[in-house]
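Subgroup meeting minutes
Present: P.N., E.W., G.H.
Scribe: E.W.

1. P.N. recapped why we're keeping a running log of single-chain structure predictions: easier to compare across weeks, and new members can see raw inputs and outputs side by side.
2. G.H. added today's entry (119 aa).
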Amino acid sequence: MFGDPHMRTLDGYSYTFNGLGEYILTDIDNGFFVLQARTARPLTSGNELVNGTVFVACAAQQAGSTMVQMTMNAEGTDFEVLLNGTEIVNKTLLASGKYQCITFSLMERSEFRPFKVLT
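Output recorded in log:
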């Protein structure tokens, strides 16, 4: 989610959103799952503000579970991944080769079964 705020809605509509601030992008079933994002105006190489925004942070949480957050640093050169507000990893640690992404699961809830693994 970092970078120029081009988005696609859950129903497939694509658009660009250059609002400045913090937003709830998704709220499923009144807080069962919430995805939030923060945008900021980036600086050019000459330290001038751009007339647009980029994503600089996002946080997601399912009811009763761990909050996962990614936040860019002020310089835009590194990021932190936090679990419940505690830093777990950053870009520098990831680049060291200590961590690997083994799998990613996306789960779908339906009225007939609690969850279905999609990927």
